[in-house]
Specification:
The protein is α/β, with parallel strands linked by helices and 238 residues long. The chain has a single domain, classed as 3-Layer(aba) Sandwich (Rossmann fold). A hairpin with a 6-residue loop joins β1 and β2. The chain starts with a strand and ends with a helix.
Length: 238
């Protein structure tokens, strides 16, 4: 385990987990989330609590619940909340997403965030470490199960936010729609204007009307290889 560091100068304190390193996908997902009007949110598979921390830092009226199956990561998430005096605005539950009906009442949340495993079972070699394997592959929860859980947990009109890989976009949209979550916003993330997308960001609404907005792509770099202004802004570098 590493020592606490500021996510940016003067920003929240954060301890990295060995198996759940803070990645660009998590930071971009938190930036993509629209917290306007949200009072109670949940992150499915919160790991060490990075996305929760970023959302709570941005939205003082928001209360966040984190659900994490790995007990060590859940403990670290609690520690990260305490480091930033956010214990009263957060709770971390150690549990399985597939047990959501036993853990929560239907419609308990108006906002949901998830950075799920990117690969389906059988898609390639897995790390020998069980926690790393579960973070990479859908060993413990499929995309369809995840979307069904999100639909149960969200109240009507509640919003769900996901980050995923472009090759899984079709499956994600189909799973969302099948669960009663209507995709409303989609944004592609690319290294630069010449590169194919490396990530997709999706917002869906529980019981929403059909109609998907494709937003301008997020470019991480300028043509000369330097960081784009938007990327620097997300990371609080400007």
């Amino acid at each position: 385990m590493s020592t606490p560091e500021n996510l940016w100068p003067g920003g929240p304190r954060f301890i990295q987990a060995e198996h759940f390193r803070l990645g660009t996908d998590c930071v971009l997902l938190a930036d993509f989330v629209n917290t306007a009007g949200a009072k109670r949110g949940i992150e499915l598979g919160c790991a060490s609590g990075a996305a929760m921390l970023l959302l709570l830092e941005r939205s003082p009226k928001l209360f966040m619940t984190g659900l994490e199956i790995v007990s060590g990561a859940a403990s670290l998430a609690r520690e990260n909340m305490a480091l930033n005096d956010l214990t009263e605005r957060s709770e971390i539950i150690t549990g399985d997403i597939r047990d959501h009906r036993a853990l929560f009442r239907a419609g308990s949340f108006d906002l949901l965030v998830c950075n799920p495993p990117y690969f389906p079972q059988g898609s390639g070699a897995l790390p020998q470490d069980a926690d790393r394997a579960a973070a990479r592959s859908e060993l413990l929860c499929t995309l369809s199960e995840l979307c069904a859980a999100a639909a149960f947990l969200l109240q009507t009109g509640g919003r769900a936010f996901f980050v995923h890989r472009p090759e899984r976009l079709s499956g994600l949209l189909v799973s969302l729609t099948a669960a009663g979550l209507e995709p409303k916003r989609l944004r592609l993330v690319c290294r630069d204007a010449q590169a194919a997308p490396s990530l997709v960001l999706v917002e869906a609404r529980r019981g929403g009307r059909p109609g998907l907005t494709l937003e301008p792509s997020l470019y991480l770099q300028n043509p000369d290889g330097s960081e784009s202004d938007e990327y620097k802004h997300i990371y609080h570098r400007i």
